[in-house]
Amino acid sequence: MTERKTIPIQAEMPASSSCDDAEPFALMVLDDVMEPEFQHRDIIVCEPEGLAHDGSFVIAKIEEEFYFRQLQIIDGEWFLKPLNPAYPTIKITGPDAIKGVVVLKKKPGRRREQKSYT
Is 41:108 a contact under the CB 8 Å cutoff? Predict the structure, then answer.
């Protein structure tokens, strides 16, 4: 049996990092908050400099926690809405909380099964 390794994730990259904050990044969906559109283990590709608008699927950071939700803008107020009604909608102060916009969804191991969000 192989031992599982824990890989620490740094919240902030050091100043000397060669990673560009504007580079797209990929994440794996690990819960059911965004079902039925996004299933457990789907891979999402996010664009950090993407334009977020009402209805966009976004990654947001609130008090050191990251959230994957659909952006709703109602009467100038910003909300993060889960697609699964079992979870609460979260009010945010505005675009500063948005860290990336989902541009692509893929199923792991299925090369041709993907969907674009632009």
Answer: yes
Q: What is the pLDDT of residues 34-49, one digit of tens each?
A: 999 999 999 999 999 8
Q: Say what the pTM is.
A: 0.80
**CA–CA separation, 59 and 42 (whole Å):** 15
Segments in the chain below pLDDT 70: 1-21
**CA nearest 107: which of 29, 33, 45, 42?**
42
pLDDT of residue 20: 57
The whole-angstrom separation of Cα 60 and Cα 62 is 7
DSSP one-letter string for 9-30: --SS--TT----TTS-EEEE--
Quickly count: other Cβ atoms within 10 Å of residue 81's Cβ. 16
Q: How many CA atoms lie within 13 A of 58 on its CB side?
A: 29
Tokens linked to 81: 């809405």
Any residues with CB less than 8 A from the CB of 12 and at least 6 apart, and which?
none
For position 6, what pLDDT does the model report?
A: 45
